Give the backbone structure.
Amino acid sequence: MTEPALKIEGLVKNFGSLVATDDLHLDIEAGEIHAVIGPNGAGKTTLIAQLSGELRPDQGRIQFAGRDITGLSMPARSALGLARSFQITSIFPDFSTLDNVALAVQAHAGHSFRFWQPAGKDQSLRRPALDILENIGLAARAAEPAANLSHGEQRQLEIAMALATEPSVLLLDEPMAGMGRDESGRMVELLRGLKGGHTIVLIEHDMDAVFALADRITVLVYGRAIATGTPEDIRANDEVRAAYLGTEAAIEVPHA
Ligand SMILES: Nc1ncnc2c1ncn2[C@@H]1O[C@H](COP(=O)(O)OP(=O)(O)O)[C@@H](O)[C@H]1O
Ligand SMILES: [Mg+2]
């Protein structure tokens, strides 16, 4: 077996007396889509923030492809190939879709920002930016100001901007949030298309999407992993059903 893409050992994060991450141990295998599900407040976003470097754990260790990154800053992790998809707030609404991605390419390449010329006019940035837009199905919207994109397209653009950093591991926190059925369906296809080229840690409430995409699922409750397994394992797990999935009102588990 190859080295896990991410190895999480004994991770603890407290907010005052609240234990948001409680001695978490988890391996994310290279190339897998690993979904993390759990009720609101389970610590999913806190986990992603510790993986991306936005939050420092109180205890424990995170390894990225065998290298201890626990003490590394967010930019240092990003440079190694670990990317978090940021929220719509990181998009420049007046810039074209292409210029937004080109700026992300430029930032990753370590060039200083050159605002007197749109990044999308620079061929060395335009080409990779267009490739990414094609890859995620937004090429037809390249010239459109980002503000004119639908909610679903803006979420796609966020992922495009994360891809500009050429990540091996993508951290996605609820990419389908606020989407209608059609938009979610397109996002599922987009993520499926990224599989293989990227390891993906996917936090998502849309159980149809999770069960359609995930190679493995971890169920987080009160900051602890109560189960990790294939979608079939998770569907059949009594403890998971009792603690989480069994409450039909809270969540419907799609049948196989
Ligand atoms: N910055 C913070 N300060 C204090 N408490 C926080 C902070 N961030 C998250 N929490 C708390 O930690 C717990 C886990 O939150 P979060 O990781 O956002 O859960 P999830 O994403 O699974 O809904 C919740 O009880 C939340 O209120
Ligand atoms: Mg969250």
